[in-house]
């Protein structure tokens, strides 16, 4: 692993300061190696972006909350040509700058980057889809980000989420149950780096929107022989005729 990334992960998520300052101190030194290392570290992004791309209408407006460097957005492939606007929102300035440069490199003229908090930034009009790629586990008030995302969607709009997870001991029907050692080890392990795994994310998402697509998997981390649970999920908000 890249030495700057290894050092940042070993040191852990910084103490003190506000959330933005902590994110920038954590990610700032890793920024050059971020994309290379996360390619192997973060599973399922291609699956979820692919499943979302299939469902996006022409001339769609999409918001990406906690979009970081935007590397996962490359998996939207040819759908970029059909996007009217792509808003990437992130609190970490150095990662956001990488996203801006990516947009320039690829000629993504529909990309706008916003240095802002995912729980408060708003588009000027309802949007077709919101993406949260490995961001919910890093947003302290993650449920606020989900609620906020739901309020941005037009009727029939989509929320696409991919992230690490940990199952409950007795999850609701349709969700995977994982061994007790996973439920105990992973939340503690990831919390060191500011990543908060929770059994509540998936049930909360499924309670807020109509589930349209779900995949759950286990991913072998690059530096150890153990596997960590992840999920990809797409939910759709009801159309006005079905809302009361
Ligand atoms: C693990 S990274 C994932 C980045 C990117 N979505 C990806 O898939 O590579 C988590 C991202 O969430 C951002 N983030 C965390 N809390 C945030 C908040 N409250 N508002 C906006 N972005 C936030 C971080 O700065 C970081 O870019």
Secondary structure elements and their pairing?
Blueprint: H1 3-11, H2 19-27, H3 34-41, H4 45-55, E1 60-65, E2 83-90, H5 93-106, E3 111-115, E4 127-133, H6 142-152, E5 153-164, H7 180-191, H8 201-208, E6 210-220, E7 227-236
Bound molecules: S-adenosylmethionine.
- Any idea of the CATH topology? Rossmann fold
CATH superfamily: Vaccinia Virus protein VP39
Q: Please give the order of strands in the largest beta sheet.
A: 3-2-1-4-5-7-6
The level of helicity is 25-40%
> What characteristic shape results from the CA principal axes?
globular
CATH class: Alpha Beta
- Going by helix content, strand content and strand pairing, the class is alpha/beta
Bound molecules: S-adenosylmethionine
Averaged pLDDT, please?
94
Written account of the structure:
- This protein has helices spanning 3-11, 19-27, 34-41, 45-55, 93-106, 142-152, 180-191, 201-208, and strands at 60-65, 83-90, 111-115, 127-133, 153-164, 210-220, 227-236.
- The chain has a 7-stranded mixed beta sheet with strand order 3-2-1-4-5-7-6.
- The chain has 244 residues and is of the alpha/beta class.
- It is globular and about 45 Å long.
- The longest helix has 14 residues, at 93-106.
- The protein has one domain (39-236): Vaccinia Virus protein VP39 (Rossmann fold, 3-Layer(aba) Sandwich), CATH 3.40.50.150.
- S-adenosylmethionine (SAM) is lined by residues 19, 23, 38, 42, 45, 66-68, 71-72, 89-92, 95, 117-119, 133-135, 138-139.
- S-adenosylmethionine binds at residues 19, 23, 38, 42, 45, 66-68, 71-72, 89-92, 95, 117-119, 133-135, 138-139.
């Amino acid at each position: 692993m890249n030495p700057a990334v290894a050092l940042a992960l070993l040191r852990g998520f910084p103490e003190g300061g506000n959330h933005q300052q902590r994110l920038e101190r954590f990610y700032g030194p890793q920024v050059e190696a971020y994309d290379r290392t996360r390619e192997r570290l973060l599973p399922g992004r291609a699956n979820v972006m692919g499943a979302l791309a299939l469902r996006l209408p022409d001339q769609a407006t999409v918001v990406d909350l906690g979009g970081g460097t935007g590397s996962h957005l490359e998996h939207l492939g040819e759908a970029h040509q059909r996007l009217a606007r792509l808003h990437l929102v992130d609190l970490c300035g150095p990662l956001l700058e990488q996203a801006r440069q990516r947009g320039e490199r690829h000629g993504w003229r529909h990309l706008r980057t916003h240095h802002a908090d995912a729980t408060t930034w708003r588009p000027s009009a309802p949007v077709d889809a919101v993406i949260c790629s490995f961001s919910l586990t890093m947003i302290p008030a993650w449920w606020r980000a989900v609620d906020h995302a739901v309020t941005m969607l037009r009727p029939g709009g989509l929320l696409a989420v991919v992230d690490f997870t940990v199952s409950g001991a007795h999850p609701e029907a349709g969700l995977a149950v994982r061994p007790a050692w996973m439920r105990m080890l992973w939340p503690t392990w990831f919390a060191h780096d500011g990543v908060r795994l929770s059994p509540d994310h998936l049930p909360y998402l499924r309670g807020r929107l109509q589930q349209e697509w779900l995949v759950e998997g286990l991913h072998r981390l690059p530096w150890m022989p153990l596997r960590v649970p992840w999920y990809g999920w797409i939910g759709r908000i009801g159309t006005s005729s079905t809302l009361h």
